[in-house]
C-alpha cells in the first residue's frame, strides 16, 4: 500500500508541494480537493504531470464504498474498503439538525467484549488518521447533491461524528488524536470538538492523556456493569482497570475540559438490568456531571447474550430517572437493514 495524502496536515501538504517543485498555491488546491473527498485524479485544477508524480508515492483513492444499505428511516450503513483491501463499517444517521457519522478506528478489535461482533476475529490493524478522516470525506462527497439542494455550498453533510464503529479508539491513540486534530482543523472540515463523541471501553491512562490534549470531545465510557466482578464477565478489559479508576479518570476529564461525560450501558438479559443494578448505578453516579445512555443489545449470532423487552428497558430507565440520574434509552434506527457493532463486516467476511 502506498502512502495517503489524507494523513498529511495542511502544512505538510504545503511542504510536499514545494518539494515537488510546484507553486505554493497548488497546496491549497490539492488540500481542498482532498477535503472534498476527491481522488487525486479528480482534482481538475492540478496538472496531469503533477498528479502522476503524486500517484507514484500516494494512493489515488484512499477509500471506496464496497456496499451501502439504506434503511426506510434514511439511516445508511456502509462497508468501506481501504487500499489494502481491508473492510470496516460505518453508519450515517440523519437528523434534522444535521448528519451524524459513526466511524471505525481499527480493523477489528482486541478488547474482546463478549457482546460485540467487531472483536470476533481480533485486531487486524490500526487505521491511520487519514483512513479515519477518509470515511467522512467520502460520505460528505456522496451527499453533495443534498447539500447543493438544501444546505448551501459551504455546508457539510456530516456535522457530528461518533467514534463508535469497530475498534477501540484509545487503543489507537496516536492516530485517533491526529485524526481529531485534522477533522477539527479550521482550514479543513472545521468540525467542532463539541460535535464529536469518543467512546472507550475504559483505557484509563489514555483517558487521562486525552484530557490534556486540548481537544474537548464528548468522552463516552462503555460501562455495561455495576461491579468489577460483573463487568469482567462481558468485558475482559475490566481485569486491567477497575470501575473506581474509570470514574476518577472521568472526573479528571471533566475538570480539565469542562465537558460532562457519558456512559453507555447496554442492557443484557440476566446480566445487568435488574433493580439491584439500577440501585448500584444510582449510588455510583448520582451527583456526577454525567449522562447515561441505555442501549438495547444487538444480539450477535455468534454469542449467546440476549436482549431485554422494550417494556423492561423503559422500566430500567424509569428507575434511573427516579433515582436522580440523567438518562435516556437510545432510539433504535436502521433496524430494517440489520447489523451493527461489527456485525455487517462479520457477515460480509463470512459470505466472501
Ligand atoms: N471500543 C469502543 C467503541 C465501541 S462501539 C467502546 O468500547 O466504547 C460503541 C458502543 O457499542 C460501545 O458501548 C459498545 O460496548 C457497544 N456495543 C458493542 N456491541 C454491541 C451490541 N451487540 N449491542 C449493543 N451495543 C453494543
Describe what this molecule looks like in 3D.
- This protein is α/β, with parallel strands linked by helices and 352 residues long.
- It folds into two domains: 5-57, DNA polymerase, domain 1; 63-351, Aldolase class I (TIM Barrel, Alpha-Beta Barrel), CATH 3.20.20.
- It has helices at 10-19, 25-35, 48-57, 129-142, 144-151, 173-184, 204-211, 228-234, 243-257, 275-285, 310-322, 343-351; strands spanning 63-70, 76-82, 87-95, 98-102, 106-108, 123-126, 158-163, 196-200, 218-222, 261-267, 290-296, 327-329.
- The strands form two sheets. The protein has a ten-stranded mixed beta sheet with strand order 1-2-3-4-7-8-9-10-11-12.
- A hairpin with a 4-residue loop joins strand 2 (76-82) and strand 3 (87-95).
- The protein is globular.
- The two termini are 22 Å apart.
- Bound molecules: S-adenosyl-L-homocysteine.
Amino acid at each position: 500500500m502506498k502512502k495517503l495524502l489524507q494523513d498529511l496536515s495542511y502544512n505538510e501538504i504545503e511542504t510536499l508541494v514545494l518539494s515537488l517543485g510546484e507553486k505554493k498555491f497548488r497546496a491549497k488546491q490539492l488540500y481542498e480537493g482532498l477535503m472534498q473527498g476527491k481522488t487525486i485524479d479528480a482534482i481538475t485544477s492540478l496538472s496531469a504531470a503533477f498528479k502522476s508524480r503524486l500517484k507514484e508515492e500516494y494512493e489515488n483513492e484512499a477509500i471506496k464504498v464496497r456496499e451501502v444499505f439504506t434503511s426506510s428511516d434514511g439511516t445508511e450503513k456502509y462497508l468501506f474498503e481501504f487500499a489494502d483491501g481491508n473492510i470496516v463499517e460505518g453508519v450515517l444517521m440523519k437528523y434534522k439538525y444535521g448528519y451524524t457519522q459513526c466511524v471505525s478506528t481499527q480493523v477489528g478489535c482486541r478488547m474482546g467484549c463478549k457482546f460485540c461482533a467487531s472483536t470476533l476475529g481480533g485486531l487486524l490493524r490500526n487505521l491511520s488518521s487519514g483512513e479515519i478522516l477518509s470515511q467522512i470525506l467520502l460520505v460528505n462527497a456522496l451527499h453533495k447533491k443534498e447539500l447543493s439542494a438544501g444546505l448551501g455550498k459551504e455546508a457539510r453533510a456530516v456535522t457530528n461524528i461518533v467514534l463508535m464503529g469497530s475498534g477501540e479508539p484509545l487503543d489507537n491513540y496516536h492516530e485517533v488524536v491526529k485524526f481529531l486534530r485534522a477533522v477539527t482543523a479550521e482550514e479543513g472540515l472545521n468540525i467542532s470538538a463539541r460535535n464529536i463523541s469518543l467512546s472507550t471501553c475504559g483505557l484509563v491512562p489514555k483517558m487521562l492523556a486525552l484530557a490534556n490534549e486540548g481537544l474537548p470531545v464528548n468522552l463516552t465510557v462503555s460501562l455495561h456493569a455495576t461491579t468489577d466482578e460483573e463487568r469482567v464477565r462481558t468485558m475482559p478489559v475490566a481485569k486491567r482497570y477497575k470501575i473506581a479508576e474509570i470514574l476518577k479518570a472521568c472526573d479528571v476529564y471533566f475538570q480539565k475540559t469542562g465537558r460532562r461525560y457519558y456512559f453507555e450501558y447496554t442492557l443484557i438479559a440476566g446480566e445487568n438490568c435488574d433493580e439491584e443494578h439500577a440501585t448500584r448505578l444510582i449510588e455510583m453516579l448520582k451527583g456526577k456531571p454525567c449522562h447515561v445512555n441505555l442501549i438495547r443489545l444487538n444480539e450477535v449470532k455468534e454469542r449467546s447474550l440476549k436482549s431485554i423487552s422494550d417494556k423492561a428497558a423503559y422500566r430500567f430507565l424509569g428507575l434511573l430517572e427516579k433515582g436522580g440520574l440523567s438518562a435516556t434509552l437510545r432510539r433504535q434506527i436502521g433496524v430494517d437493514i440489520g447489523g451493527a457493532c461489527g456485525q455487517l463486516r462479520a457477515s460480509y467476511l463470512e459470505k466472501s
